[in-house]
Amino acid sequence: MNAHILWALVLGFVTGVFLRSLVPLEVAFVGFMALLGSAALLLGILERKKLRACVLVAVALFACASGIARMGAAVVTTDPILDTRIGEKVVLEGVVSHEPDAREASTRILLRAGTIIYGSATTSVSAGVLVITSAHVGVAYGDLVRAEGTLRLPEAFETGEGREFNYPAYLAKDGIVYELSFATVEAFGKGARNPLKAVSIYLKQLYLDGIARALPEPHGGLAGGITAGDKRGLGEDLSATFRTVSLTHIIVLSGYNIMIVVFGLGWLFARFRVGRWVEFGLGVAIAAFFALITGLAAASVRAAAMASIAMVGKVTGRVYLASRALAVVALGMVLWNPYVLVFDIGFQLSIIATWGLVTFSPIVAAKLSFITERFALREIAAATIGTQIAVLPLLLYQSGALSLYALPVNLLVLIVVPWAMLFSAIAAFAGLLLVPLAPIAAFPAYALLSYMTGIANLFASLPFSSIAIPAFSAGWLVTIYVAMLLFILKYERSLIQ
Fold first, then answer.
1. Residue 145 contacts residue 94 (beta carbons within 8 Å)
2. Of the candidates 293, 109, 143, which has an alpha carbon nearest to the alpha carbon of residue 206?
């Protein structure tokens, strides 16, 4: 019964957030859902034989009402003063709320604006603003800055094949409702900072400096991506190649990367007969370490949480326990920031990829007895196939790009990912401590990263490496995942019987 209540709570809350994300439901609808829940509970009290079913329905309805209310409370609103200046050149002052996103041609700064200056007047405002400025601007997290540029509202845009990206909602998940384009930025002081976040960002930059001293580009960019979630040095061409062959998930640190490392370490631990729970503790510590050197970015923290959940399934051998843990963590993430459920593709891929690791990988592993267990090859192959099965429908819905060689490419590349991450970390420390000898110490990382880029370039050059799939409705996407879920439930029941 407890498990059923948990699932009723999670699914009800997520449904409420989902509905409110797409339809502007009013407070009256929340009251209506709560009233229905009360009626279901009362029916269960009156009809004792139906109490169990009525309690589950009541929990789901109350949770749905809570989800609608939570999303309604999270909706980001505009500032009335800034609204009157849309399309005008303005000067804003505020604090940099996240690590600046430095790209090849520009830098993107998330600014928590507190003041607008126009003419000789100064007025207080409160809004999140995405400031787009030139590359290599000397601004850091927590700086007080003055930004001058054209104020505008972000707009949705077409991504091809009939698909539209809801850019305003994507920015709203970070509290951003305005853009300041073609801006000039100058820092004039220090504002409030989260000490832990500030230290982790410093450590990340120090780590990336070590990689830059030890490895040339694009190898350094790839090393920074797979270990610290940084892909600024990868370049457009190689990034496009990785997208073509469905290797994008390894460019940035993800739960998938961390799990592959843990599988590799699992093979190593098995050689020394380390206990399962010691392996689990070390795996969680590794996930936390990677999250720290990424600057505690939301995506990396989420990746560490997802990897830890997948390790629960691996250590206990119980899919249903890991599934419940995944549900609880997903509930917590949506409760913290409801926007991620519908408008953050990274969150969606993390959840579904972890679900694929937990549910499909054991099924696939049972069919791969012809693959050796040495070097964790069978686990890596099963994880790759299981995850690809789970995320493929979502990727096709979001991007429409179908890579015919995704599976062999991932199998060939992910085998070396644990070692590439290990030797990339060694290269970074060598770059910091052994500057003259850093390229020598970094040679193993260079060789493995060259292998990864070589495989990607080879398969991307083959005919039909990527096929464009026309846009299809969300209804088909839901139908596919419901069918997958029913298959998993049927499979689990067959094991119990």
1. yes
2. 293
